[in-house]
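Notes taken during the Thursday session

The instructor put the following on the board and asked us to keep it in front of us for the whole hour. The protein is EIN3-binding F-box protein 1. We were told not to look anything up and to reason only from what is written here. First, the residues (669 in total):
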Amino acid sequence: MSEVFDYRGTEDFSTGGFRFPNPKDSSLLLPLGHHVDVYFPPPKRSRVSAPFVVSGEQKQKSSIEVLPDECLFEVFRRLPGGQERSACACVSKRWLMLLSCIRRDELYTNKITQSGEPEKRSNPKKEDTCSESEQKGGYIDSNEIKAEAEEEDQETEANGYISRSLEGKKATDVRLAAIAVGTGSRGGLGKLSIRGTISIRGVTNLGLKAIARGCPSLRALSLWNISSIDDEGLFEIANGCRLLEKLDLCRCSTITDKSLLAIAKSCPNLTSVTIESCLNIGNESLQALGCFCPNLKSIAVKNCRLVGDQGIANMFSSAGRVLTKVKLQALNISDVSLAVIGYYGHEVTDLALTGLQNVNERGFWAMGNGQGLQKLKSFVVTACRGVSDVGLESMGKGCPNLKQTCLRKCPLLSDKGLASFAKTAGSLVSLQLEECHRITQFGFFGILGNSRKLKALVVENCLGIRDTDFEFPCMSLCNSLRYLTIRNCPGFGNASLAIVGRLCPKLLHLNLVGLQGITDEGLLPLVQNSEDGFTKVNLSGCVNLTDSVVSVIVKMHGSTLELLNLDGCRHITDASLVEIADNCLLLSELDVSGCGITDSGIAALAGAVHLILQILSLSGCSSVSDKSLASLGILGQTLVGLNIQHCHGISLGAVDLLVEWLWSCDILA
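Then, after some discussion, the predicted structure tokens were revealed:
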């Protein structure tokens, strides 16, 4: 090999005659004028300026460049180590692409070791500190081979393997080739994510081929919004990356069932597969994954028009004993698929169904009565019109270990079905309702009265909940409830809040957001009946609350309160800040944005010795001025976040001083 690189003569390779086919070819002369790419040191000033002509024998082409690709391939695969291959990759794009075509089993170093000759091993720690370019694994040359990993690239170590993410203009075949060559000697590439390439010089099958040949250790592959890769690229991955465990395909319109079949057959270690908006992937892919992937734990199929009941049925009949997490969204499936899931999903613990327009009440009823979802713990349904009282009650009975349920946009669900579900789902711990407009005040309190283990309840944008004058019968206390969130339910008022105060004495986290109908009169009973003390209280958007209720909150719960959010409570004034400064011992986050706060209130907070605030938001407090600069400086000793946006009384100069003083605090201004 040394004879090839150190060649100086002309006997072995020259065939005789003139080296260039056309000696008068203008491309062999240097260009004239001010665009000359040659540097000349400035000469002394001359009396006459005249154009110059470069003449002489043309520089001969380096002998190594005349070798065909087959010879260079043989030379490169005999290089002793990763550093040498990395150095050769810097020479040209041609060399880089040739190096990226060499598979691990084609490297000659393995054969040298087997023949008994000593193999030169390098210290891995030494390799990591050899040079800055090697630490980054990058290659830069005159042919615009960009760095394989610049500062913008995210490189993390996961289970001893390198993780890379390419996006936009950085996602090219050249970059993938550089990754394939550069990561081989540094533990191997474990995770690769490619998102949204440009149409020109984007990632193609050639780039995936380089990864498949140079990165057999690849465990996770994500391809997002890439139309220039088709089945040929995934065939290469199937042949070269047999350790693949996670595959994520999103908006890959040219990939079909053929390549997914190859992946399923060649990669038995697959545990997680996500297929989203891939228009040419259908039932055959799901059937292959179920048959050939014995370790498949998680499957997510979203917006794939060719996936139907046959694919879901075949996959669950084969992999129902191993699948634990299933997500199905916007598919052309019917009640048959849900019945199959309910019968074969023996190991399923997490099930999410979204936008299944062809599924009716019968499907959910059959899924609950299938008795196969005994291990189901999390159930999420969004925008499925088939969710009704009968179907939900059936799910409650058929899933004895169900702990978390989220129901969004279920227009047929009513109070009766919700109360029955709460009664039959004996293990239910967390329930979230969103945009279920047939749920009224009776359904809300039916949940509290029938749930024995419920710890968290979230109700959002349910317009059917309104205060009524109806006298509720005596109900047992809901002592298990710790977290209550009611968000943007305009009909939820003082009457409902007072009943919550009587039924839920063990609340720790209280989130009442955007409830313009509640006042101090409705909130006080809830605050006064709490036995264990609030730790987090969020009252943002409750515009009718005043300093009186805040005073009660901080006096009764100041020893436990850690977060207080009063964003948009316009009647809150400095009096509340004085009470907070006097009574809150553990408060770390305070938001009084849009309140009637002035410099006096900020001074009161700064004077509290025991108060250790970490996050303070004063956004929109127009009465706060430069006079609070000193107080904010004192508070800033413990602050990590300060929001003073739209505080028009604070000048730009004061903001600059705060940024200078509070260098360790993130300031929004």
